[in-house]
Write a structure and sequence with these properties.
This protein is α/β, with parallel strands linked by helices. It folds into two domains: about 10-60 and about 325-429, Alpha-Beta Complex (Aspartate Aminotransferase, domain 1), CATH 3.90.1150.10; about 75-320, Type I PLP-dependent aspartate aminotransferase-like (Major domain) (Aspartate Aminotransferase, domain 2). Helices cover about 35% and strands about 15% of the residues. It is built from 14 helices and 16 strands. It has helices at about 10-20, 75-85, 95-110, 120-135, 175-180, 190-200, 225-235, 255-260, 285-290, 310-320, 325-345, 370-375, 380-390, 415-429, and strands at about 40-45, 50, 55-60, 115-120, 140-145, 155-160, 170, 180-185, 205-210, 240-245, 265-270, 280-285, 350-355, 360-365, 395, 405. The strands form four sheets. A seven-stranded mixed β-sheet has the order 4-12-11-10-9-5-8, with helices on both faces. Strands 1-2-3-15 form a four-stranded mixed β-sheet. Strands 13-14-16 form a three-stranded antiparallel β-sheet, with helices on one face. A hairpin with a 4-residue loop joins strand 2 and strand 3. The chain is globular. The protein starts with 7 loop residues before the first helix and ends with a helix. The model is unreliable at about 160-165 (pLDDT under 50).
Length: about 425
Amino acid sequence: MAPTELRPASSALIERAEGLFPGGVNSPVRAFRAVGRPPLVLERGEGPHVWDVDGRRHIDYIGAWGPAILGHAHPAVVEAVTRASRNGFALGATNSLEIELGEAIRRAMPSVERLRFTSSGTEAVMSAIRVARAATGRDLIVKFAGAYHGHSDGLLVEAGSGIATQAIAGSAGVPHAVAATSIVLPFNDVDAVSAAFAAHPAEIAAVIVEPVIANAGVVPPVPDYLQSLRALTRANGALLLFDEVITGFRLALGGAQERFGVTPDLTTLGKIIGGGMPIGAYGGRADLMNLVAPADPVYQAGTLSGHPLSMAAGIATLEELEAGRYAALEATAAAFEAGLADAATSAGRDVAIARVGSLLTVFFRPTRPIDATEALASDREAYARYFGSMLDQGILLPPSQFEAWFVSMAHGPAEIAATLEAARTAFAA
């Protein structure tokens, strides 16, 4: 099949976008620069498919970057949002839908005794960090290289030269003094965390972790790693903060904390709990969340927090997930992983596939990475060629080697089979 070419509709829209938005997009990964392709302009989605403005259909593994666990435009979610829209949009006071979704989250995640809705995952993480600092009276935060916790200044940092070295800014415009409040360590290295606590006694407010890193490609925790973080934070008077914006309701109904049996002090959520609408949430122990205004002086607010349409979409999504469908999703993802491995082996390609639940990445390197340094050693050019071949065959993968693929409950045997057939061609190309 000939390479995908821009047609008049997409070409004209991309030109208009480039005159409006930095880089022509409203989020950097959408520019497709990492894979050397023109960006797609998508028009609609349904089930496991998306269509671009030129009318081409693609089997989709971006999944709106995580929310579309049911597939796109699920009828129950569309109906719930439509019904809620008839009552108006933002109303300026508490709506009953906020209470209903909050209770559904708490049932699924007992560690979230109280919570607060926001409009994005970035807001949720920023607010949870503020709570942790207020609760402990400490300033420093430990995070892990390769993890992404939104684009607030204090968390846009890169690792320094030593395991307990305070970080340098990872974005222009981040003051050094702000970046210096974050300590960036290698993932899956318990000794590095112990060393950080030893180097900064009574200074670390919280350790924030993606229980499964999904922003350097999928990097699972090694056995007992999360349990060790739990023990170390308790021993040193710090809080453990799970960033489950991606893993929440993705790896299990109760998220990664249910799957791995670890209870954090605070949790941040997003993506699936909004069913594709803008949303975020942070919550945890009642004594910690009671520090948030108006109950106490930790200030956080949002005009559109708890938006009725986001609440309605989230409620409808979680109702679908409460039907015990995770086992089937796990089986689909496992079969997909096995098929991809077989396709690569048959083509003589040396790749490593990392998967946890319905999160998956094909790394163009010989072994599964255990941290960001290993992940970043993958062959990016090989991935770009693979991406292009798959796109030309109607399969839409994340346009970066370092993003998770999302398998949804809408991906059935036909979609998986078509994807594997395309993969055999792409690996062999």
